[in-house]
Design brief:
Blueprint (H helix, E strand, L loop, with lengths): L1 H15 L8 H15 L4 E6 L5 E3 L2 H8 L3 E8 L2 E7 L5 E7 L4 E6 L7 E5 L4 E6 L5 E5 L6 H5 L11 H9 L5 H6 L9 H10 L13 H20 L40 E5 L2 E5 L6
Parallel strand pairs: 2-9
Antiparallel strand pairs: 1-7, 3-4, 4-5, 5-9, 6-8, 7-8, 10-11
The chain binds a DNA duplex through loops.
DNA sequence: CGGGGCTCCTGTGCGC
DNA sequence: TGCGCACAGGAGCCCC
């Protein structure tokens, strides 16, 4: 009987937790912090490309030849984008930008047979780019600021560029629904489906409300909660719902703290109402109808 | 501006 | 049992 219950329990976990977790700001920040400790000043001794479509620019040949014998100097994160500053064998500075999109992973360790691109390092270890759905993008560019994604990106939510008065003002000017607006990287950088849902829950705001209909107190609260939830998630080394892994291939623990994300049909941890899942802007959106008004 | 739909991709789940 | 379709989603694109 006990064994049957245990099997049923895991079966339920498997069936209900199908939603994918995407690498958002806290996950990308965790990868950056992990990799900084192990790859800086290491030289790339081989570039192995198993899936050429993930390399967007320049040509494969140039991508390989520039990276070969380059050294990692620095890692930068902007929103969900990671950029590795490298110095080539010809002493030129380039940036290897990596967008993980849905299922991308950057893992340091031994070579992974299912990697899409592997970089062999001078110490014999590998930096592997894994990506089941291959929607991620690698680019090698001279000027990272010139990339359209970077040029168009909104403020970093954990930096001083993210100001409460600006946030209140811009929110009051937008008619779009607040949840899809939070996902817009031009509005604020680094927030994805998980943290948008969770920040709105803590702020008790209905994700379907028009941004301009939030009052000043609500906008202020949301601003504060965006910052606090991202900081908390970084402390937990990110959320691993399914695909996300840190720089060493390990899971993060923030998913244990979810109030609404992936909890459709389950009781709200605050008011016991049932968590609902609706579509907003084409994206699955979780919320508690009891708590969020 | 806002919103809808399509595209990229692959594993999974469901209907017939 | 098995085939084929729908779905999941970040982000760019097009269109109304």
């Amino acid at each position: 009987m006990l064994r049957v219950s245990i099997i049923l329990f895991y079966f339920c976990l498997l069936t209900f937790n199908l939603e994918k977790a995407l690498p958002e700001l806290p996950e990308v920040e965790t990868i950056k912090n992990d990799l900084e400790k192990v790859i800086l000043n290491k030289k790339i001794t081989a570039v192995i490309i198993h899936r050429s479509s993930v390399v967007k620019e320049p040509s494969l040949k140039k991508f390989k030849s520039l990276l070969l014998d380059s050294k990692f100097r620095k890692i930068i994160r902007r929103g969900k984008l990671l950029a590795f500053e490298i110095i080539t064998a010809q002493k030129e500075i380039y940036f290897l930008s990596v967008h993980l999109r849905m299922t991308g992973q950057l893992v340091y360790g031994s070579d992974d047979p299912k990697s899409r691109v592997s970089f062999k390092l001078s110490n014999g270890f590998y930096l592997c780019y894994n990506d089941q759905r291959t929607l991620g993008e690698l680019r090698l560019v001279k000027d990272i600021q010139a990339l359209n994604v970077v040029k168009n990106m909104g403020p970093e939510p954990l930096s001083k560029d993210f100001r409460v008065n600006d946030f209140i003002k811009y929110i009051s000017m937008r008619k779009a629904k607040i949840k899809p607006l939070l996902l817009d990287q031009k509005f604020v950088a680094g927030i994805g489906n998980i943290y948008a849902a969770e920040a709105l829950f803590i702020s008790k705001i209905d994700p379907a409300r028009n941004a301009c209909d939030l009052n000043e107190q609500e906008a202020k609260l949301l601003f504060k909660n965006i910052k606090s939830i991202l900081k908390k998630a970084i402390k937990c080394r990110g959320s691993s719902f399914s695909d996300y892994r840190d720089g060493h291939g390990n899971k993060g623990t923030f998913s244990n703290n979810f109030y609404v994300y992936g909890r459709k049909g389950q009781a709200c941890l605050v008011c016991k109402d049932f968590i609902q899942r609706i579509k907003l802007g084409g994206r699955g959106t979780y919320f508690c109808p009891g708590c969020q008004k």
